[in-house]
Structures are given as structure tokens and as C-alpha cells.
């Protein structure tokens, strides 16, 4: 009994209580620096819904939520397939030659702290002294000279997403490799005997057998995309050109600590929580729906 | 704030144990200590702790109790913290206790629980990127008028030892609540040697600046460069110019966030000239994607741009990235034309490093006494000598300015300006810099014209003016 009650109390005190506390603060005009708070009802929420900058941040966060998991998962899944069964089509089912080397190397970016990758890429994207423009102008692309990748609204978000994808692809690749190894090898061999190519094997054999791993990865990446604070604040601390890379978490930080409006910041936090709830609910809901269909198919 | 806890609550609902463990292995369920950073309990800060008070005498104007330490939290930035520790010797000699300095670069984050809990430090240097907005804590600060009306260690009333206008930025709603310690002169900075070698003279109006831009172009150089986090240095330059062009009415109209204030003729005349500089290609391209110190090095080290608008901290900030024999020199911000309301020598001078004493501090008298010592001739001269920057205290910089051309030109500009020095801080008071950066980066890149910039800035100021949850400060 004790070993259940104690963690539960800790959970109540450290997770549930602060959560409720923040929800209460979101109904006040608390500056963050006083011992008491004035209750203002739903004013903060009304303000947020009419705040263009905040809505823009919500839009950017939702864009990240859609784009980031999709890109990362597709890429890492493809790589995982290549190093597990994408190799020579004669002999046993195996990955590309040197696949264990690729597996290790592609994991490296994940080991670099997010803040460090951010700083490195900020230098890579530098308009006049950066590696990227250096290479592009070296190849004869005159338009790349002094082009501000992070300073132009058309490219800032794309450049940012590229950095995050670069960081995470290796990690998810390793994860998916483990999941694919968990699938009986006979399945792959049978598929090959039936004449399935690599793409068909990936889509029809590997993917359906690892939905659990895919869904968990999707949720984790989605939640990360809703945060993404470190990368975005290193690459474009102020929210980027025309606020094109401003996300909710940056707005929360600057509202709380720069403007001293903790009440309003807590309201943003609560809205972010609601978005997270909806997202996870959707992913599990869709997953369950698909699962039910499959069961129905089997029964038929 | 509560992100981490939200995730956790989200994911545990109706989770099967295996799925729980799988998610836990991703680190999703780790509740972070972040969520614990909320207000502590209900301790009301009402009771003013009856601090032991010392006797008020001529040498102890604030009644510092004997043998009591001063808890000072000092921003550890470009100036370090040793100049505050320097005051400890004199403090110990007079009152027994010492000034205990805690360096910090996270002022807002670290001081928040202390203000909430009613145990703030006795002296706080509220500076740096993570400072606390003055409007947020103004009501919880001690009024510093008694400090500036007291005599310094040499026996002169402190108010009379300062450069004119130095207390303006520390006055909030008619009350002096912070003392800005380091003199900051805003203007355009250039290399005296580079200008001499090319036979250029520093411009005094935007018309002259545009002509200079053409000459610089002929030498393959740009007139200006900028960095993405510091695009608003050009906003300061524009406001300074507009004030010089149109006089005090412009300053108050902007400071009071009046409707259509950015469309005033004086403001527009300056912005139009800047727009011409942008469209003529006098700005080094790519600034919107360049980190600001890297951009500043394009001016001070590579000398690809010849002028840079900034405060006088620029010499110290770039001292490791300045070309040899650069001879950094300042010149006042530019009015649009020669027919401006204020003379060309008029100067935007104010002060930085805001020191404040929280009203609930246990040893508030000690905090004020530390400031009194720091404002003495000896401490102020020590600061000028070791930091190559002047404090707000007059006559602490000798003629040779300890060999610093930038410091010498600061003093020269101040003397030339005389009573024609002005300041404005509405951008900071209302925290508008972040929003302004967005439009200014677009404007300097050439993606936004003068009309677009004007309406963008007007939108930002209108939003603040119409938000009745923001306390307004009347500028006069």
C-alpha cells in the first residue's frame, strides 16, 4: 500500500497541485512579483483570443505539430528500413552494407544538446559568414549571397524545422530499428518470396507490425513540437521575421518574465495544455478507430 | 510554466501500464521541477519587519544599523560586479557590516520568488536581458529621493553632482524609484582613423548622411549594418532624430503613445530619409539573419560599414573585436535637416544599470547607504578608470579619458550638448522592443516601406495604449 500511496502523494504535490495552481493564476492579473493576486475572471482568455500575436504563435505551433512529426517519422522510418531490410536482395534479409556504422553515426546529432545544435546552425545560416551561403555561392548561386535564411519570413520556419529534424532523425531511426527487429524475420522472407519490393515490404509488412512504436513516437514528437522552445529561442529569440517562428512557449516566457504578466502567461499555458489534450486524444482516438477496423476485417 | 505537468496529466489518463512504461521510457512522463516555480503559500508581505534602525546622523543619513550586512544582487554583465564590492570597504569602515554581493544574470527568474516571499535583497542591480520590467515592481520599491537629497561622502548634495537629466529614466509615475548608475550616451559611432584617411566628416543631419553613404559606396563600403536582435538601435536613432527635428512636443507625443504619433511630420521626415538610405543600398544586406555582435564586428573589425548607432557601451562590448587603431568616436544622433528645432549638438543622454532598493528589504537603509558610497567621488572615479565608462557623477573623467577615445568623445558630446540633452524610455517601459524588432528588421531589409513601418509601429503603440491593464506613465 505504502509504495503506491507515497508516489501518488508526490504526484499530487508536484504535478497536480501546480497544474491547478497555474489554472487558478490564469484567472488573476498576477504580475508574478506580489504575494497576492487580483481575481479577474476570464479576462485573460478574452484578451488572448483577440491578440493577433498570440494567435499567430498558436498557428505556428500547430504548423510545427503537423509538419515536424510527419517529416521526422517518414525520414527515420525510411532510414530504419534501409538499415534493416533494405540491403541486397539475394541471400538472407539484411540491411545495407555498413548499416551498423550508419546507425551509430546518425545517432550523433541527438547526443548534441539542443542549445548547442541551435548555436551551431545559427552560425551555419549566417548570411555573410555562414557555411550554407558559403557553399551555395561557391556553387555559383549568386542569389544566395547575404541571403538571411533565418531573417526572411519565407524561409525562417523551414530553416528551423530542418535543424530540429536533423537532431531527431537518428534517434527515431534507432528506435524503429529496434521495433523492426522485433518483427519475426520469417515475415520479411515470406514477403520477399511473394515478390514484395523494399517499398512494399516497408509499407505493408514493417509499418503495420509496429504501430505502437510509431504512435508513441508521434505523440512524443508532437508534444515536443508544441514546446520546441530551445531551438526556436536560440535561432530566433524574438520570434523571427514577421513573427514567422514565434511559438506559444516563447510567448509564455516573454509574457511572464519580460512583461511581468504571470496571470496572462498562465492562461496561455492552460490553452497550450488544452491543445496538448486534444492532440493526444486525437492520436489515441484515431489509433483505436483503425485498430477496431482491423479487428473487424480479421473477423470477417 | 506548467507545460511539463500538463503533459504528465494528459498521458496518464486511461493509460495501460505497458503503454505508460513505453511512454515513460521516452521521458515524456518526467515531471519537471519547472512546475514548482509558482508563488509560495499565502505569506502576506504586509508586516514591515521592524528592522533594527541605527541612529540618523550627518555621517549616517539613512540610519544604517551597526554591524549589519547588505544583501546586494548585482547583474554580472559587461561591467562585472567588482565596482559594487569596491564600496564594501568604505561601508565596513563606517558601519561595521559588509556589502555581500551576489552576481546574477537571471535577475527576473531569481528575484521573483524573493519578491513574492517578502524577502527581497537590500540592493538590486536590475539589468541585463532578464531584468524585471520597472512597471511590474515599481509599487514595491523604496523612493530614492532621500538618497539624492543626501550629501555624498565629500559633503556635496548628491543631486548636484550628477549630469543633467540623469534621474529622468528612474522616475516612475512622479516617484524616483531607481537610480541609473552608468552614464549612457546614444549616437552614431565611427572610426576616427578611417574617416580621416578618406577625408570624411561625421554627418550632423540625415541629408549629410545620405551624401556620405554615396561616398562610402564608391569605396565599396556600406553606410550602416545591423543585427537581428539589435534592429531597434535604428528605432532609437530615429526617435532621437525626430526629437531633434521637432523638439519636445515630439518626445512627449511619442512617450505618451498618442494616436498617429508616428505620422508626425518630424518623425516622418526622419523615417523617409532612412527609407532612402535603405532603398539606395546603404545598409549592408543580410542583417535580419545576422547575430548582432557579428553584425557589429562588420563595422568595428571588418569595417564593411562605417557608422553604427548604439549606446556608449559599444566600446566595451566590442573591445575584443575592434580593429587596431580604430579610435572609436561618437557623434550625436541625426536630425532630418539643418532646420531642426534642436541644435546639432543636442544629445540623447541617459543612464543604465538601474539600481533599486525594495521597500520590503530588511536592510533598506544599508542598500541606500551602499548607493551613497558608490556615488562618492572616489568610487565613481574608480568605476570610470576600471570600466572606461563614466558614471552619472560629473567630473570623474580626466581630459585624457584614461586613453579611451570613446569615453573622451562621450564627455565632449555631453559638454557640447549642455542643457540640450534629452531621453526617452517608453519602448522599454511598455516592453515594446520585441514587437518593434519585427517591423524594423523588415524595414531595414527593404521588405517594408516607410508607410508600412509607420502603420506597423502605430499598431504596436495603439495596442499598448488601448490595453487598460497596462499602467501608463505620463511623459512631460
Could you explain how this protein is built, in words?
The complex is a heterodimer of chains A (300) and B (476). Chain A is mainly α and 300 residues long. Chain A has one domain: MetI-like fold (Orthogonal Bundle). Chain A contains 13 helices and no strands. In chain A, helix 4 (99-111) crosses helix 7 (156-181). The longest helix of chain A has 38 residues, at 262-299. Chain A is globular, with a radius of gyration of 23 Å. By secondary structure, chain B is an alpha/beta fold. Chain B folds into two domains: 70-182 and 353-400, D-Maltodextrin-Binding Protein, domain 2, CATH 3.40.190; 185-349 and 424-466, D-Maltodextrin-Binding Protein, domain 2. Chain B contains 19 helices and ten strands. In chain B, helix 3 links the parallel strand 1 (70-75) and strand 2. In chain B, helix 9 (233-246) crosses helix 11. Chain B is globular. Chain B starts with a helix and ends in a 10-residue tail after the last helix. The model of chain B is unreliable at 1-50 (pLDDT under 50). Chains A and B meet through helix 1, helix 10, helix 12 and helix 13 of A and helix 1, helix 2, helix 4, helix 5 and helix 18 of B.
Helices and strands in order, then pairings?
The complex is a heterodimer of chains A (300) and B (476).
Chain A: H1 2-25, H2 43-49, H3 52-85, H4 99-111, H5 114-124, H6 131-138, H7 156-181, H8 185-193, H9 198-209, H10 211-227, H11 229-235, H12 248-258, H13 262-299
Helix pairs in contact in A: 1-13, 3-4, 3-7, 3-10, 4-7, 5-11, 10-13, 12-13
Chain B: H1 3-12, H2 17-26, E1 70-75, H3 82-95, E2 99-104, H4 107-116, E3 123-125, H5 134-137, H6 145-149, E4 171-172, E5 175-176, E6 179-191, H7 192-198, H8 206-218, H9 233-246, H10 248-255, H11 265-279, H12 292-300, E7 308-310, H13 314-317, E8 328-332, E9 347-356, H14 364-374, H15 377-387, H16 405-417, E10 421-422, H17 426-429, H18 433-445, H19 450-466
Helix pairs in contact in B: 3-14, 8-11, 9-10, 9-11, 18-19
